[in-house]
Amino acid sequence: MNLPRTGIGIDIHAFAPLDDPAPLWLAGLLWEGERGLSGHSDGDAVAHAAADALFSAAGVGDLGTHFGTDRPQYKGASGVTLLAEAARIVRDAGFEIGNVAVQFVGNRPKFSPRRVEAEAALSAAAGAPVSVSATTSDALGFPGRGEGIAAMATALVVHTGNPAGGPPSVKLSAER
Fold first, then answer.
1. What is the CATH number of the domain that holds 91?
2. Which of 96, 114, 153, 174 is deepest in the core (most CB within 10 A)?
3. pLDDT tens across 65-96, in order?
4. How far is residue 96 from each of residues 48, 62, 76, 83, 89, measured CA to CA in Å?
């Protein structure tokens, strides 16, 4: 029996310095008029957390393994591009994606008016349902002080086959 596997991903980005502004990309969307996040790629903490949760669930490394700062080709890369590539890597490892859920923590931007649009962009990138919720930290910690944004994600995957040349899947049974 192939049981579902879950994974957790966390991503945190500081807001870009005022003297070196950047556009805000969050949950696959451009947020006009908002201060952007710093990072090696576009700083999209929501998309990055979703990708990391997929890697965690499939047991195929993490964001740094696949898109680390030591890889110049990912400098400035779009979060949805990274999420789509993460989904491809997970599927190539023999997994199907059930869903991804992300919680973003920050005082801004106001997320609820664009939730449906964000979920559609992320779901299209992952090729699976992605839900996003948002909250504040009640003025506590770096998000509460307006210094940055954090995102936590969970993902559910199911092993459907062996990756090319990979080890056989582990079968669980009640027998010893």
1. 3.30.1330.50
2. 153
3. 998 788 878 887 899 999 999 999 999 999 99
4. 19, 17, 28, 15, 11
